[in-house]
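Q: Could you predict the 3D structure of Histidinol dehydrogenase?
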Amino acid sequence: MVVRIEDAEIEALAERFRAHVGAATIVEAIGLALRTALRGGEQRPPLAQRLRRAIALADAMGPSDPTFDAKPFMDDMWGEP
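A: Sure. Here are the predicted C-alpha cells for Histidinol dehydrogenase:
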C-alpha cells in the first residue's frame, strides 16, 4: 500500500514516530498510532463520568459568591499589599 503524505511536517512526524517505535514502514507506524489512539479512546470513561467526583466536591462546597474577587484574595495569600 502506498500512502502519500503531502505535508512536510506530518511526513517528518510520521518518520520520527516510525523510527521511535521501530516500525519497518511509515504505513506500519501509522497503523500502530491509529490502533493505539482508538483503543485509548474506547477504554477511557466518558468525560461526564471522569468529572463526577470533581462536580460532587464543588457541589459540596455550596453555592459560589458572585461578588468574590480573586485578586485581593491571591495578593493576601502571597503576602502582597
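Q: Anything worth pointing out?
A: The chain is about 65% helix and 0% strand.
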